[in-house]
Amino acid sequence: MSLSLCLMCLVLVPFATAGLALIQQGLGRSRSAAHAMLGALCAVGVAALVFALVGSSLAGFAGGAAHVAQVAGRQWDWLGAERFLGRGLRASLEHGPYAALVFALELFAVGMGALIPVSSGGDRWRLGAICASSAVFAGLFFPLFAHWAWGGGWLAEMPALFHVAAFVDAGGAGVIQVLGGLAALSVVWVVGPRTGKYHEGMAAAIPGHNIVLVLFGCMIAVAGWIGLEGAASMLFYGGTSVQVVLIAVNAMLAASGGCMAAVVMTRLRYRKPDASLSANGWIAGLVACSAGSGMYSPGVTILIAVVAGALVTLSVEALELKLLIDDPGGAISVHLGAGLWGLLAFGFFGPAEGSRAGMVLAELVGIATLLGFMFPLMYVGNSVLNRVVRFRVDADGDRQGMDIRELGSGAYPEFVVHADEFGPR
Question: Given this structure, which CATH class describes domain 14-407?
Fold first, then answer.
C-alpha cells in the first residue's frame, strides 16, 4: 500500500460529502435552504466528534483489540475494543500508519453516512434532532456494522465461520450508503411527510428550488467517490496504486451510466428528461458500483450503473406515490436502493474467488444483516430519541420554513418571498 497515495485519496473524500450536501439543499424548498446546509454541517461535525471519542473504539480495525464471543464452537468477532476518547490512536501509530489511516477514512465515512438522513428529513427535521440522531449514528450504528465488514468482524471472517466467501464492500456501498439510507428511512417514518405533500392519498409535487446547485453537487461528488473507494480498497482489500487508476475510471463510468439511464428512462416515461431524477441517477451509479470499486471491469461497471440509474427513477416514484414516503431528495432510493443492488451485484459480477453461489450467499447475509438487524435497531433508536428530542418542527415551522423558524433568517432574504404555496388552503 502506498502511504502517499492513500493520503491523497483521503484528502478527496470530503468532496463527496460537499456534493451530497449541495444536492440535498437544492432539492429542498428555498425557505429551508440555509437550514439544510447548516444541518448537513452539523451532522458531519457531530458525527466526527462522537466517532473520534467513542465510535472509533467500537469500530476498531483488522488485527486490533476486539470483543469475541464463543457461540456454537466458533469465535464471533462482534465489536472493537480499542481505547475510548481517541487514546488508542497515538498508541497504534507506534506500530505503523495502518490504524491511523483507517481512523481517518472512517472519520470521513461516518460523516457522509450521517448526512444522508438530513436529505430525507428536509423541510421539517429540527436541527437539535439532527445533531442527536447523528451522534447515535456515529457512536453506535456505524461503528457496529463497520467493524463487522471492515474491522475484521464476523462478516469479513465468514470463510472461517461458515466456509463460504467473505462479505465484500470495497467502497462503502453497505457500510456508508445502505446504512445511511436505512437511517433516512427510519427518520422519515418518525417525522412523517411535509405539510401539504399528501391530500386524500394523492401526492402534490414540491419541486426543488435550485437544480443548478444539485447538478454542480453531482460533478464535485465524483472526486470524493474516487478518494473514498481508493482509500477503502487499499486499506481493507489490498488495493494497489494501479487499481486506484481503475477506480477513477470506473467512478466516472458509473456516474455517467447511472445518469444517462435516468435521462433515457425519464425521457421515455415523461416525454422530457427530468433533471432531478437524472442527478439521482448520477449518484445512484456511484453508490451501486461502490461495492466492487476497482474490482470490476469497465463493462461490468457500466452495466451495474445503468441498472441502478433506471431503478432509481422507478423507486423514487414508487416510494412517493405508492408508499406515501416523503423523501425530498430521493436519498432513500439513491443510497438504500442502489446500495442494496450494488451489494447483490457484487455477488454476481465480482471477481470469482471460489464458488459464485458462495459469493452471492455472503452478500445476501450482509444484506439480511442490514435489513433484519440494523434497520430495526435504528428505527427503535430514532423513535426513542424522538421522545427525548422532538424530531418534527411545529406547525409554524412548516408554514414559515425552517430558516425563519430555527435560524431567524432566510437563505435568500432579498430575492425570495416565503409563502405557504403548498399548504392547505
Answer: mainly alpha
